[in-house]
Amino acid sequence: MSQQYASTQPAGFKNHIENIAIVGAAGYSGKYIVSAILNNGKQKVTAITREGSTSQMPSGIEVKKVNYDDHAALTEALRGQDALIITMGVRAPPDQQTKLIEAAAAAGVPWILPNEFGGDNANESYRKETGIGEHKTQYRELIEKLGKSSWIGICCGFWYEFSLGGGEGCYGFDLKNRSLTLFGDGTQAISTSTLPQVGRGVANLLGLKILRDDEEDKSPCLSDFKNRFAYIASFVVSQKDMLASVLRVTKTEEKDWKITHGGIKERHEKGNEMMKAGDYTGMYMVLYMRSFFPDQAGNHSVTRGLDNEKLGLPKEDLDEFTGLAVQWVLDGTRERYGQ
Hints:
By secondary structure, the chain is an alpha/beta fold. The protein contains 13 helices and 13 strands.
């Protein structure tokens, strides 16, 4: 398809997104996304939530409570929206996202950001060896099959402060008890993002012009990301880099920590066996360990390159967010988040 420009579109064409609907506005990443969109001050945000939901929604947005099983009602709730952002936990009913995508198509929503906030699911081996990544393919394919919307996935890696404070099964750290399991030799770097950076990434992406103005316009636009992933990150770090940051923040030394080693592929296989036995926590081990494989699948800064500059994302301070992870663990915030 030839390059399209705003200057050649019919009269009345809007070259910016004005109305954004979001599912999961009160969730882990959702509240950061909403905050960043509102901070940009360009768009109206509507939270789509289930009837009966008691979630405390961010201020400054409209809230529509809908029965997700009522296709007509869900379609009506999404009518007039320029973009739909779907953020949901991994335990959400598997047909929930399907219903949202089908309603968005019926409502004529042109852009959908499906529940893709994590690893590089465009990487076939990574996708297949995490299980959940392969499962997400169906939603992107459904959007394209329906032909009414375009999708954009957000590849941000795992959330840094969330994962650092998430216990040994995430980035290997038990911050409360000062212990660390190094995966292999602890030097495999991965791309990881803070929650505020994820919020800014989505907000700035949806703040781009939809099309370039004309042939002379070389600025990035939303259509550059049509039916593909946007790649962002806050840091490219190994476990040893994380440890150095933790030591600086906690003013401790390595001798103050219990450090052990675990095989990456062995732990990945153990996670698979746990899942086969019905232990849901094995999924996290599978997801995290696959990102530390030496094929760099977890380091999209190397395999894909980052879109940070295109999206105007700032550089962040590693120790600041390491400190936040430590604080979350000590004051109980991270425990309340759960997995």
